[in-house]
Amino acid sequence: MNIDLPNSIRTGPDERGHFGNFGGRFVAETLMPLILQLEQAYADAKADPSFQAELDFLARHYVGRPSPLYLAERMTEALGGAKIYFKRDELNHTGAHKINNVLGQILLARRMGKKRIIAETGAGQHGVATATACAKYGLECVVYMGAVDVERQRPNVFRMEMLGAKIVPVQSGSRTLKDAMNEALRDWVTNVADTFYCIGTAAGPHPYPAMVRDFQCVIGNEVRWQMQEAEGRLPDSLIACIGGGSNAIGLFHPFLDDKSVEIYGVEAAGHGLEHANGHAASLAGGRPGVLHGNRTYLLMDEDGQINEGHSISAGLDYPGIGPEHAWLRDIGRVTYLSATDKDALEAFQFCCRQEGIIPALEPSHALAQVMKLAPTKPKDHLMVMNLCGRGDKDIFTVADHLGGM
Amino acid sequence: MATRLDARFKACRDEGRAALVTFLMCGDPDPETSLALLRALPKAGADVIEIGMPFTDPMADGPSIQAAGLRALAAGMSLKRTLGVVKAFRETDDATPIVLMGYFNPIYVYGVDRFVADAKALGVDGLIVVDLPPEEDDELCLQALAAGLSFVRLATPTTDAARLPKVLTNTSGFVYYVSITGITGAATPDYSRVSEAVKRIKAHTDLPIAVGFGVKNAETAAAIAAHADGVVVGTALVDALKHSLDGQGAATDQTIPAVTKLVVELASGVRRARTLAAE
Question: What domains can be seen in chain B, in order of their start residue?
Answer without folding.
Answer: 4-274 (3.20.20.70)
